[in-house]
From TrEMBL:
Domain of life: Eukaryota
PANTHER family xref list: GLUTAMATE RICH 6, SIMILAR TO CHROMOSOME 3 OPEN READING FRAME 20
Pfam families per UniProt: FAM194
FAM194 C-terminal domain residues: 1-177
Protein known as: ERIP6 protein
Organism of origin: Nothocercus julius
Amino acid sequence: YPSGNLAVVVVREAERFVCVVQEDKPSNAAIRAVFQSTGRGTCYHPNGTVWIHMNIHGGQYLDQAGNRVRTWTWPNARVSPGPPVPLSPIFVSLNRHVGVRILAQDKIAVSFLAMGQQAKFNVGTRVQGSDVGRLPPRAPLGEEQLLLLAFRIRIRQLFDKLRGCLTFPSNEQWDKLKPPAYFSSQALKITQLCKTSDVSEEVHSLVRAIINA
């Protein structure tokens, strides 16, 4: 950055590469984006929530509250039947100097512009369909991970309720407020994960109790 702080770091791990974008701070700089040559990539909003998340199957775009705005699948890496969800070109500014442009799976660029100088990093990759078929199955989540997911939903529910109380101080209006639809979808996903993971019924019941508290 013009301040002298490190903006973009490219690290090689064995035969893999990782590109990291940091915020403009001299120390304890937060990570604004990470891209891996394996096809995984994540961008973060200024408040730290996930903005864009991609893997070898596709990606999703979320707002600062965590709501899913849109999703897409890569044409050559889909694993489910049916037509892929096409990608509309995406361009986001991580800050005044660094931007990310996503045009296709192999056309993802991090651009840096400062003091009349520009640098571009191609962080896209392409995974063939045959490679996807050889991927190992996703490991089931453990008890601690499921409980953490449940607590995260519960905390976000409480914050949403607090926001509603601050917006509508009248008690009569509280009962009319409905929680965002994504809370229900996330709760359903965690419940399904409990069924497919090797956890006890006690943990499953605890997860449901946390979500429905």
